[in-house]
């Protein structure tokens, strides 16, 4: 495989888009590599949140809250927005956009995906890591926002990419490495 072939970056309507699916976004080097290949917007389709983790507060959302969502939506929204859902997303998702000076289009299902309840919270972030638009509905909705290229060169991430000095750390990040990760979906 030639360098860069493992990352998906393509041109469409005058923009360069990248795609990183689910867990690929958690590995920060994947986002940086995609942005270095020219991506201005990264699509990040996911099926995540509301699952157990070592992080405090994470875990499943009680099915009774979902079943009662029309009568007590605020209770379910509080669970979805807390550390089991949006709270976890907001620890890392804005950083991916900000650090790399890219727009981020994050999607996530709402409701059940198989036996696991998911919180939705699909959103679009700008190169400053700010949420431009977000879905808070318990339905299958779509969010749309107008994006402009003028934010990209002004963003911190663009400056940071231009200030990189790979000659100082090439040997460190290029060392052979065997992943010791055992994602739950491989069990």
Structure, described:
By secondary structure, the protein is α/β, with parallel strands linked by helices. The chain has a single domain, classed as Carbon-nitrogen hydrolase (Nitrilase/N-carbamoyl-D-aminoacid amidohydrolase, 4-Layer Sandwich), CATH 3.60.110.10. Helix content is 30%, strand content 19%. The protein contains seven helices and eight strands; from the N terminus they run ββαβαααβββββααα. The strands form two sheets. It has a six-stranded mixed beta sheet, covered by helices on one side. A two-stranded antiparallel sheet has the order 5-6. β1 and β2 (15-19) form a beta hairpin. α4 crosses α6. The longest helix has 15 residues, at 86-100. It is globular and about 55 Å long. It starts with 7 loop residues before the first strand and ends in a 14-residue tail after the last helix.
Layout: helices, strands, pairs:
Layout: E1 8-12, E2 15-19, H1 28-36, E3 41-45, H2 63-67, H3 73-81, H4 86-100, E4 103-107, E5 110-113, E6 116-119, E7 123-125, E8 131-134, H5 151-154, H6 156-162, H7 166-173
Parallel strand pairs: 2-3, 3-4
Antiparallel strand pairs: 1-2, 4-7, 5-6, 7-8
Fill in the keyword field for this structure:
187 residues, alpha/beta, globular
Brief account:
By secondary structure, the chain is an alpha/beta fold.
- Number of separate strands: 8
What do the pLDDT scores average to?
Answer: 91
Q: Rough shape?
A: globular
For the biggest β-sheet, the strand order reads 1-2-3-4-7-8
Low-confidence stretches: none
Order of helices and strands: EEHEHHHEEEEEHHH
Report the helical percentage.
Answer: 25-40%
CATH topology: Nitrilase/N-carbamoyl-D-aminoacid amidohydrolase
Strand content: 15-25%
The CATH class is: Alpha Beta
Helices, by number, come to: 7
Distance N to C terminus = 28 Å
The profile of the biggest β sheet is: 6 strands, mixed
* The CATH homology group name: Carbon-nitrogen hydrolase
Which architecture per CATH? 4-Layer Sandwich
Q: What number of structural domains do the residues give?
A: 1
User: Structural class of the helices, strands and pairings?
Assistant: alpha/beta
Radius of gyration over all CA atoms, rounded? 18 Å
